[in-house]
Specification:
Two copies of one chain form a homodimer. Chain A is 44% helix and 19% strand. By secondary structure, the first copy, chain A, is α+β, with helices and mostly antiparallel strands. A three-stranded mixed sheet of chain A has the order 4-3-5. The first copy, chain A, binds a DNA duplex through helix 4.
Chain lengths: 167, 167
DNA sequence: TCTTGTATGTTATAGCATAACATGTCAACC
DNA sequence: GGTTGACATGTTATGCTATAACATACAAGA
C-alpha cells in the first residue's frame, strides 16, 4: 500500500518519484483545502480521490465506480459521477475530456490553470503548469470580447519514455 | 438557402456577417483542399460539411445523422461518424470534446491550431487563431520532454452578446 | 423535536461511439 | 471485357458514458 518507489505505475507524471509520498501529500493538502472552504470531503469523495491518486492515469467514472463498490459504496453510476463532480468543482480533480476520464489534481488549492499532456502509448497523464497558455487564451478571448469561465487544454502525444522506445 | 444577412443564426462566430457567403466560401475552399490532397469529398461527406456550415454551432453526430438521413443517406450512427471523422482528419472540421460535438473548420487548408470559445448561453462556437497558445503549449511540452501530436483547446464562457444581456 | 439542506442510494433511461460484417463502386491492370 | 483490390457506404448489434428523477438517510440549527 505504502510501498515506496513502486515502479509498476504507468504514469509517474513522466518522472520516477516516490508515489506513495506524492499521493499522500496531495491527499493531505486536499483535506486541508476542503476544510478551509467548508466543503465536505465525505468518505465516498475521499475514497474516490484516493483511487484517482493511486496512479497518474486518468480513470473513467465506471472504473472508479467499480472500485468504490468494492469498498461497500453504491454501485450505480451517479455514485461515481457525484463524487467526481464534487472533486472537480473543488479543484481536487480534473476532467480529461479527450479521454472521458478523470485525474486527481496534483496541486490542490493552488490557483492554477492546468494543461494536460496525455501519452497515447502508456496513457499516463501529466498536469503541467500553463500560466503562459492561459495568458495567451485570455488575450485571444479579449480580442473577441469573450469572457472565459473554464478552460480545457489537452495535448495528445508521446511521453518521454514512450517517445524513445518508439523512435 | 442563400438568404443574405440571415439573423436567426445563433452563432455568427459572435459577429454579424453574411453567413451564406461565409459558408459558401468555406465550402469552396474545402473542395479545393480535398482535391489538392486526393481526398475524396464524396456526397455524404460534402453534405455533412454543409450541414455543419449552416450554423456556427457545434452539432452532435446524431443531429448530423438525422439531417443526412433526411437527404436519403443511411440513418445508422456509423454513417455520420465516418463522414465526420473524415472531415476532422482532413482538417475540414473540428471536434469539440467539451460538447461531444463537431464544428466546421473556418480555415480549411490553412495551417492553424485552433482554440474554441464556446458560449454556454447561446451555444455558439467561435474558432480563434491561437498560435500564441500553441507556442506556449509547445514550450511547456518541451520542458517535460513530451512530443505533442494533437491538441484540444477549449474555453467555456459567455460570448459578447450573451455577456451583455446577462450583465 | 422539527425543519432544512445536503449527501447518498437506486431505478431507469438518454446520449455518444464503435466493432463487425455485408454490399456497392470505381479504377488499374491483366 | 473481366478480375482484382482499395475504398466507401450501409446495416446490425452492442458497449460505453452520463444524467433525470425519485427515495432514503443524516447532520446542524431553530
Amino acid at each position: 500500500m505504502t510501498d515506496p518507489r513502486r515502479s509498476s505505475d504507468p504514469g509517474l507524471a513522466f518522472e520516477a518519484h516516490d508515489h506513495a509520498d506524492c499521493a499522500g501529500d496531495v491527499l493531505r493538502r486536499a483535506e486541508a483545502v476542503s476544510a478551509d472552504r467548508g466543503a465536505r470531503l465525505t468518505p465516498v469523495r475521499r475514497r474516490a480521490l484516493e483511487i484517482l491518486l493511486e496512479s497518474h492515469r486518468a480513470m473513467g467514472a465506471y472504473e472508479v465506480l467499480e472500485r468504490l463498490a468494492e469498498d461497500g459504496f453504491g454501485n450505480q453510476p451517479p455514485v461515481a459521477y457525484r463524487a467526481l463532480d464534487f472533486l472537480v468543482d473543488q479543484g481536487l480533480a480534473h476532467r480529461i475530456r479527450r479521454l472521458n476520464a478523470f485525474a486527481a489534481c496534483m496541486h490542490p488549492g493552488e490557483a492554477h490553470s492546468p494543461a494536460f499532456f496525455i501519452c497515447r502509448s502508456c496513457s499516463a497523464v501529466a498536469e503541467a503548469p500553463a500560466e503562459a497558455v492561459r495568458a495567451a487564451m485570455d488575450s485571444a478571448a479579449a480580442t473577441i470580447g469573450f469572457s472565459v469561465e473554464r478552460m480545457n487544454i489537452e495535448a495528445l502525444g508521446l511521453c518521454p519514455a514512450c517517445g524513445e522506445t518508439a523512435a
